[in-house]
Amino acid sequence: MIYITQLIYVVPGQERVFDEFERIAIPIIARYNGRLLLRIRPSDDGVIGGEMEKPYEIHLVEFDSSEDFDRFKMDDERARFLHLKEQSIKASVLIQGTKL
To answer: Strand locations in the chain, DSSP E?
Structure first.
């Protein structure tokens, strides 16, 4: 089992484009033994401290294996809509880990 945490920074004004990409990409996760555990939009008052910019969204996803995650990233349907991701996301931080 692997866990993927992604901090997503959206281009201002491109929130609807980002949401359109997510409507397509999130259901595809399940095809590859994955589960969206959390999808969070942190509020300004929800950030207690830190030295980095608050992300637009935080995703926590679980996959049965690294191979499943790799297959998800290569999915043909998802690939057809990557232009929406590229248009709407200015940066993201992906953290891969395991449950302790």
So the answer is: 2-10, 34-40, 57-63, 89-97
- Sign of the torsion formed by the C-alpha atoms of 73, 74, 79 and 82: positive
Question: CATH assignment of 2-44+52-92?
Answer: 3.30.70.100
Those residues whose C-beta lies under 8 Å from the C-beta of residue 8, and which sit 6 or more positions away, are: 18, 55, 56, 57, 58, 59, 89, 92
Tokens of 19: 């949401």
| pLDDT tens, N- to C-terminus, the chain (100 residues) | 999 999 999 999 999 999 999 999 999 999 999 999 999 999 989 899 989 999 999 999 999 999 999 999 999 999 999 999 999 999 999 999 988 8
- Candidates 85, 86, 94; CA nearest to 21 is 85
User: What predicted TM-score, i.e. pTM, was given to this entire model?
Assistant: 0.91
The pair of three-digit structure tokens given for residue 39, joined into one six-digit string: 């999808």
Domain boundaries, the chain: 2-44+52-92
